[in-house]
Structures are given as structure tokens and as C-alpha cells.
Amino acid sequence: MTELQKGPRGQRRGRGARERILAAAHDLFREQGINNTGMNQLCEVADVSKNTAYQHFTSKDQLITEHLRQQDPGTMPEVFDRADLTPRERLLAAFETPAASTLETTPLCPFIEAAVEIADPEHPARILVREYKKSVAVRLTETAREAGAIDPELLGEQLALLLDGASVRTRALGTGAEQTAAGIAAMLIEHAIPQTAPLRL
């Protein structure tokens, strides 16, 4: 087997380079935004040459799109695929956050970030954002239907809007809005889904 070409500071190009590029994109886009991150800086952080970067991603636009795909490829499986929870409990779980969460650990939703920073509605990343946000609403609606909601489509859209609003408010104010959002979600679910037992928060 021939030796792989080496990139900056002796790193081998090829194997592992793609993962390093995506990891660098994740950190830089999160810390300083998409538009403020250039390919030169990204390559330096990923420890790859620009030639190597463009072998894996033909453009920054393609990198942004793949970065978003990596964020949540299964549409919140940690919530919607939990067999240990009832459908009603899964709806509430969508609003749970780790006890130690801070603005640094729960930044603005990367899909919202991309929608704000990328002006072109036909940009592949913007198209992916629309598809993802619709998929979240669909999964919420499906779960609401399983839970017996009177109008699952309405509840799904309400909860999707609430999730996005909490993310933006947390980013804007520097304080978590998740607890307030969880309380509002509980009230919406209480109203929309007939029940015989009290909600578990």
C-alpha cells in the first residue's frame, strides 16, 4: 500500500481528514458563525491542506450542507425513538435539557443559525434546513397522533414552533428558556390530549 500524502504539520491526508474537517466546521461554525469562518482558518484547525479539504468537499457550501446533515441525521432519535417512554412522555422529552446546560453547551440550533446566515433560499443548506424543520414537525405530529391528540397536526406545529422559539430566546438573552418552554408544552399537551392521569414532567 502506498503511503498517503501528508498535510500540514505531518498529518496524513485522506484517512481521518474528512472527520477532522467536519469536526473543525462544527466547532468554528458554532463559536463564530458560518460567514465568519473561512476555508483557510478551517483547514488550519483541521490540520489539512486546502487541496485535501477540496478533495472531500468541492466547496464551502457543500461542507456547510454536510455539517448540517451530521448534526441530527435521525431527527431527534434520542427523543422519538425512546421505547421506554409513552408517546405523551416523548413529546415532553423533546423539551428536556441536561441539568448542567449553559449557553455554551446549548447554542442556537445549527439549522436556525444556517437559515439566518445564508440568504439564498435555494442554497443546498437552506433546502436541508427546510426539510429538517419539516421533519421535526412531522415527528411531533406522528407522536401526538400516537398519544391520542384531538388535532395532532396542530399540536405538532405548536410544539415545533415552541422548540425553535426557545432556542432563539436562549441565544438572544444568554439565559435558558427551556424550562419555560417545557411548562408551555405541558399545558399545550394537557389541553390537546385527553388523559386520565396527571402529566409527568
From TrEMBL:
Keywords: DNA-binding, Transcription, Transcription regulation. It comes from the Bacteria. Residues 15-75 form the HTH tetR-type domain. PROSITE patterns: HTH_TETR_2. Pfam families: TetR_N (PF00440). GO terms for molecular function: DNA binding. The keyword Metal-binding does not apply. Residues 38-57 bind DNA. This is Transcriptional regulator, TetR family.
